[in-house]
């Protein structure tokens, strides 16, 4: 997968670059499309509720550069990790609803709506949906010398040996943990979950033979797969991806299974409709730019931008879906 590595390095190299000024070729001014005549007149702030350098941060910085070009103003990325994305999300929920403070959110927002007790915000009441950005897979990985080189081998062994297979994740209630729990339910298998405080230690223990497999983010585990340190077995997405050529989806053996990771932009509730429209227009232009598409595809992601209304419907459907998994699996953060 050398082409993936090359694309990723190119993307990372672009993150520190200042977005070019001016409108995209052939695109009318946003103000004339939306009526937001005076927006934006200064730099915007994009809160990323993760640490710098991770997969979400990379997506956020790349998108910020592309949206800056569409809006004609810079977008400053503000990393606010902690609380499983709750800290950064709450900052935006409590911000002035003027369009200048935005949130780069992920599947975690939908999960936290049920998983986290006493959230400091109401997911439906306190945010304005701007738009979906992209969706992509998580990956089930094993050790290259493992007997589990196919998903079928995993399922057969798990059914014959309930509870004996161990899998690691980046933590209780994480998106990859819930992807595995959904797999257990759909495939009818019993697996033993080993939670970690981050993905790196899970990868280390898998390489060291202390785990049978790990559910991991596609971008986070890519370098291990490229190096041959770990082996990709199956994808959690609905469709295969060129970033992992030849790797099947879980759904090909387990009908109805899907656990895609997604990224979206939200603003504080009460953001004026014309500003929401302007931001959505910039988001769609940025996400559909061929250069941006190429960069996110390096990690197996595909653009899925749409309207704010479509984003709200999608987000609420995700909240309902993961609520069911959390309840059925009796999942907690402890």
From TrEMBL:
Of which family is this protein a member?
A: Belongs to the UPF0065 (bug) family.
Please give the Pfam families that the UniProt record associates with this protein. TctC
Q: Spell out the PROSITE patterns in the cross-references.
A: TAT
CDD domains in alphabetical order: PBP2_Bug27 (cd13578)
Keywords recorded for this protein, A-Z: Receptor, Signal
The source's superkingdom equals Bacteria
Lineage, broadest ranks = Bacteria, Pseudomonadati, Pseudomonadota, Betaproteobacteria, Burkholderiales
Q: What is this protein called?
A: Tripartite-type tricarboxylate transporter receptor subunit TctC
Q: Does the keyword Ribosomal protein apply?
A: no
- Signal sequence, renumbered to the chain: 1-31
